[in-house]
Specification:
Blueprint (H helix, E strand, L loop, with lengths): L4 H4 L2 H5 L2 H11 L4 H20 L10 H11 L5 H17 L10 H14 L11 H4 L7 H12 L4 H5 L4 E4 L3 E6 L11 E6 L8 H12 L18 H14 L10 H13 L4 H7 L15 H4 L2 H7 L12
Antiparallel strand pairs: 1-2, 2-3
């Protein structure tokens, strides 16, 4: 965001020019770099559409332009992607000094509602990867295998594993992953993720991490946790490994992603009777959003009616509403 004359000509800025640079730094830090990259990609698609349709690129864009854009793209983009593209337009308009431009666009809001009601929001959550499924994955790539074990048993986001500030401490019966940056930690308080050992299991996260650290060697410890010499780990590479394993097992790989581990860990804990509070704490969820990750087993759901009847709160012959 470029600061206008009201900032550059301000007496305090004239006396101390470094204030402008510091302000710019803080403004850029108002969103995560991953979000900025996502917005940039979406905004580029918007500008390409403008050029393809001979529409002048003005900031902020007209409501008519945005309406016709989402209508045109509704046949190829999911509703969530349309919202993301609009968020990108609003963000970069804000960078240019035009704040909250979408708030007053009533027609655009009604068109979006119509698109959602007509075409639906087709976002499908990724299928969980549970310990039982992970057992069938190939362990030939020790780096991806260690990442998968950590992601599942630590309820980790892939971005947390890939961040340069993430470090690991190994102990006899557990390890601690220090997560300095996280989606739900904008103020960088950091968190220690404790992952226990499974000494008699083939998918022990400590064994996987120990093996990876041996391969990586002491010389690679100055970079990211899962980088090795000139071989840099990447999200696309890890996701590709996941999908290759799913395809080999005869599964629809499009239904699995890096987030499947976090979803799988939360689901298994929920089905095992672990309390909501503990799941929320283990996954570092700030809201109740963790409940969307927990996919309860149908065998548990089928017992709910019997558990209601057998509950001490409902005596024999006593029902709510009587």
């Amino acid at each position: 965001m470029q600061l206008g004359a009201s900032y550059t000509c301000h007496p305090a800025a004239l006396k101390k020019p470094s204030l402008l640079l510091i302000t710019q730094t803080f403004l850029r830090a108002n969103i995560a770099e991953t979000t900025r990259r996502t917005y940039l990609g979406a905004y580029q698609q918007f500008t390409w559409w403008l050029k393809a349709n001979n529409v002048p690129q003005v900031i902020p864009p007209l409501q008519e332009t945005l309406v016709l854009y989402v209508v045109d793209k509704s046949s190829s983009l999911k509703f969530a992607s349309l919202r993301k593209h609009l968020a990108a337009v609003q963000y970069f308009s804000g960078e240019a000094g035009f704040e909250e431009i979408l708030r007053t666009m009533k027609v655009l809001k009604r068109v979006l509602t119509g698109i959602k009601r007509t075409l639906g929001d087709t976002r499908l959550p990724k299928i969980p990867i549970t310990p039982q499924l992970l057992l069938k994955f190939s362990r030939a790539d020790v780096r991806y295998w260690a990442m998968a074990c950590c992601a599942l048993f630590g309820l980790l986001r892939i971005g947390e594993l890939l961040d340069s500030s993430t470090k690991v401490q190994m102990f006899t019966d557990h390890m601690i992953l220090r997560i300095e940056k996280s989606k739900t930690d904008p103020f960088r308080h950091g968190a220690d993720v404790v992952i226990g050992s499974l000494p008699h299991s083939e998918i022990c996260p400590l064994k996987a991490m120990h093996l990876w650290l041996q391969v990586r060697g002491p010389g690679g410890q100055s970079g990211r946790l899962f980088d090795y010499a000139d071989s840099k780990v990447s999200r696309p590479g890890f996701v590709r490994w996941i999908k290759q394993n799913c395809t080999r097992l005869g599964l629809d790989s499009s239904q699995y992603s890096g987030h499947s581990f976090r979803r799988g860990g939360a689901s298994v804990l929920a089905n095992s009777g672990v309390s909501d509070v503990l799941i929320k704490t283990a996954g570092r969820w700030e809201s109740e959003a963790y409940q969307l990750y927990c996919e309860l087993d149908s065998t548990i759901l089928k017992t709910l009616s019997r558990r209601m009847v057998d509950s001490e709160n409902l005596g024999k012959g006593s029902f709510i509403g009587e």
